[in-house]
Specification:
Blueprint lengths: L4 E4 L2 E4 L9 H4 L5 E6 L5 H9 L4 E7 L2 H13 L5 E5 L2 H7 L6 E7 L20 H5 L2 E11 L2 H12 L4 E6 L10 H8 L5 E7 L11 H7 L5
The protein binds S-adenosylmethionine (SAM).
């Protein structure tokens, strides 16, 4: 497994030096709200939002590829964005083992790898088995934003989100009001590719687990099975 690293401003820690679950308010004090982006790539959206909300919002970015992690870390440093907390590691591992639950006002996932071959589909950030981990980051009323240029994957994700009893899904018909959010999106828009965009609101606790997700399977399986 890729060793996890965490950076804020000039400071950087390996996971072994961090108390778990991660105490976000200790690492980045004074935030009124937190937002999370999974698979930040070159960090265009994370860094822009962090600059816009420097006094109030903490932006937590997760990226598995070291080259992109270093690039975004260095840009955040150069721009003095001390409200960015950046983590290098695998998103679902970090969500399940490192991050607290129910803290984010928004989770952003833009153009995640679609892994179109069925033997690779377990690597997807979004499917029925991982959706509860991802949406579990949200506070009640928090919003998940998702975009993809991959129609088949987009439709599958929309189906998973729509069939979740703890979410209210809305397809967003046009471009984002703030323009293309990420490098990939800017490229796809320039090439005239259609993009699917969704917003899902997390409803109040009570029915927050997908009936076909892992927890559902575990709950439905008798010990003899
Ligand atoms: C297709 S790129 C999109 C990057 C950016 N969101 C954009 O729209 O420009 C997908 C990004 O997610 C990262 N990624 C893929 N799987 C990941 C995972 N399991 N955990 C964390 N990051 C992941 C990749 O390294 C890559 O930077």
């Amino acid at each position: 497994m890729i060793p996890v690293r965490i950076a804020r401003g000039e400071r950087e820690w390996p996971l072994s030096e961090i108390d778990l679950p991660l105490d976000l308010d200790r690492l980045v004090p004074g935030r009124e709200a937190w937002e999370v982006e999974l698979g930040v790539g070159k960090g265009a959206y994370l860094l822009r939002r962090a600059a816009e909300e420097v006094e109030s919002v903490g932006l937590l970015g997760i990226e598995i590829v070291s080259k992109y992690y270093r690039l975004v870390r260095d840009r955040a440093r150069k721009r003095g964005l001390t409200n960015v907390l950046l983590m290098r590691g695998e998103a679902l591992y970090l969500i399940s083992a490192v991050l607290p639950a129910g803290f984010a006002a928004a989770v952003h996932v833009y153009h995640p790898d679609p892994w179109p071959k069925s033997r690779h589909s377990k690597r997807r950030l979004f499917d029925v088995d991982s959706i509860d981990l991802v949406t579990g980051l949200l506070v009640a009323g928090g919003r998940l934003y998702f975009a993809t240029d991959h129609p088949h994957y987009g439709e599958q994700v929309a189906e998973v989100l729509d069939s979740h009893p703890g979410l209210e899904l809305r397809a967003l018909p046009g471009p984002w009001p703030d323009g293309p959010r990420t490098n990939y999106e800017a490229k796809f828009v320039a090439a005239g590719k259609p993009i699917l965009r969704y917003e899902a609101v997390r409803l109040a606790p009570g029915s927050l687990v997908h009936p076909a997700g892992v927890s559902g399977v575990v709950a439905a399986t008798s010990p003899r099975d």
